[in-house]
Amino acid sequence: MKTLKIIPFLVFTILFIFGCETKSEQITNKEDYTKYLNIKGNKSLTFARNEIDFWQKKFDAAPNQISYLSQLASNYSTIFEYTGDVKNLYKTEELLTKSNEAYDYSRVSTVRSLARNYISQHRFKEALALANKALAIGEGRKETIKLLFDVQMELGNYPEAVKNLNAIRDMNDFDYLIRLAKWNDHKGDLKTAITFMEKARDIAEKYDNKALKVWSYSNLGDFYGHAGRIQDSYDSFLKTLVIDPNYSYALKGIAWIVFSKERNTTEATRIIDAIAATHNTPDFYLLKSQIAQFEGNKSEEIKNRNAYFSMMENNNYGAMYNKYNALIYADDKQTAQKALEIAKIEVDHRPTADSYDLLAWSYLNLGENKKALEIAQKYVVGQSFEPKVQYHLAMIYKSNEEADKVGSIKKELLSSVYELGPNLEKKVNQL
């Protein structure tokens, strides 16, 4: 995971159920983005592969030159970012581990790079151990503190995260501003989060930094969407693609607008299929399965869900898709026990409110209503403002006959239908 990527890469974690296809306001225009669906070639990928060839030959000729390993690792990481092929993530880890061992874990930049790789793999506790090792070395302290903030947020160690955030306070620093935005989003203050993300974007534009502009535009696209500013979200994703036509994250955002706002399943599927041709990850099959479920096409729903699990079996994704799997399994009484087992692992990996929500949701679907309520009240209430988590909370209250607590949550959820997805709207209305 790159230094700046503090917002989760996987955005399509919402489960849908069949609902009415109401026509909605048109935001998108095919002419705006179709040219990005079948881009011939990828300059960033070609460059990374050429670099790998170059540095591998140099390393083969002089295997004592350990610095070449970091060059190789960086380019394998780029390939992972653009293709989603997890083998490149593990190749990056292998090279960085070899490099760190050769330096006896004394080179702070290489230690931090391995920690970020572990974050991408959802190996957060190991990432924290490396971040602390980097801090002990002392060199490049500010960059290490940024890393510590990122890891502590993933682990739910919020007092430590804030301490690290305050230690790097600088309202003119891009990296500080995006982390300040993340912190405010975590607190449920989306308006303030957007303000700080826009300030970060302004800095990226001021210095005309391509990488920072791509990052800030695409993440503003997410934030605007969460705030219900769909036109701004769409425009921001398009601005991302102008700079990097191969940036699939922005196309995913547009696909979500087409599906969730415009309810155009055919066009959403066309976009998803185009992305998956070059950036193939299991979540695309899951999203297509959910779209088919919305359409009432049971055979397509099952086919795509099976393809998702098949891809999971054929690749070692570790804990990267645990949240997806738990939500899928929890929905079926026959597999709810599996969901519980995964949720327990997630709580151990990252004891955040979201992980405890998975645990509570799994217990609820196993019929253990009181247990679900106990966990939710202790670890979730007031600690996560994610709409999906709030929906689970409302269902837990309802199942425990605490209907008086459902009304206010339902009101909030109805204002978050776009983020939840069109089919969950029906479920929310039934609360």
UniProtKB/TrEMBL annotation:
List residues traversing the bilayer. none
Positions of the TPR repeats? 214-247
Q: Which InterPro entries match?
A: TPR-like_helical_dom_sf (IPR011990), TPR_rpt (IPR019734)
**Annotated SUPFAM superfamilies:** HCP-like, TPR-like
Arranged from A to Z, the UniProt key words for this protein are: TPR repeat
Name of this protein: Cell surface protein
